[in-house]
Design goal:
With 366 residues, the protein is mainly beta. It has four helices and 26 strands. Strands 8, 9, 11, 12, 13, 14 and 16 form a seven-stranded antiparallel β-sheet that branches. A hairpin with a 6-residue loop joins strand 12 and strand 13. The longest helix is centred in the first third of the chain and has 8 residues. It is flat and about 75 Å long.
Amino acid sequence: MKMHLRATVALIALLFTSIYAMAADIGSLLREDHPDQYMVKEGDTLWGIAGMFLTVPWYWPEIWHVNPEIKNPHLIYPGDEIVLKYVGGDPMLTLKRGPGERTYKLKPQQSVRQGDRFEKLEPKVRMSPLSSAIPAIPLDAVASLMSTGRIVEEDTLSKAPYILAGRSERLIFGPGDQFYARGDWDEETSVYGIFRSGNTYKDPDTGDVLGYEAIEVGLAKAVDREGDIVTFDLVSVKEDVRIGDRLMPTEERRVESTFYPTPPEQRVEGVIMTVLGGVTQVGRNDVVVVNRGLTNGVGVGTVLAIAKQGPMIRDRFARDRKEKQVQLPSERAGILMIFRAFDRMAYGLVLETTEPLRVGDVVRNP
């Protein structure tokens, strides 16, 4: 599903006031090198702008002043100016509207069909905004990952319909090929995702299975049915589609076009279980899997700090041999944001790192 980076968005984060923000000293949120004003440019994000002024960007709503004279101050456009002021001793960010919201492109009015004839309309001008509001966070790093798979129960794939054979007796299929699949079908569904088994995710602490990964490798459309055998056209592929791959109805879920980072409202502590892409090192813009999800208060937009595991060292001065090996405390070394959450685990995008991270490092409240 295509996602538009310049989609007009409302700063929904302004509606949220976390218990952590209420306790924060507003003055301490400002960076020492903050600017006094900033002109919004094409390509900016709210996350990036907030980071210029604040040490913790998700506290943006705490110092955002809603200008009463601006029709919709929750939309920010290229050409707008953000100005830092002090009200009652507290810092406030205010908005001076630029030309972005008031710039229009003109289109001629079209004729309208009325029954069997066209009604001729007087020439008019139809106006629509030329510039779109900037998004809260850049999405290009995760757009390609939004529909690559899902987390399912243990027997979900094994019970799903499977590719039986191809019309051309091929073992591997590409776009435009036809194949036959067999199984129990939803009569009202015609478009199916094609999946194969991926990782089995186990909690590193308890060993409990958190979920089974179903990797999406293609998309197919049903064109004919005869009993339990359905003929499909292969519409698109992400990997080679093979005999034995499973089919499931396309998932009906909301795909977020913009994310609004907020800290969790309860205590969260987990670990990075894996990095998508088959690597062990974690860097900026990497997608990681964490062992905390919706049941732990972790949802789409939740921001978590990444703490690098402290090294295990030998204490040469300990008298008790049992205390010879000591693990040093973990230290904060990055930030991630959850962009897709399941019941007991979630996918997160690494936004910042200050030093190399790896699988097994801790995630917790920022």
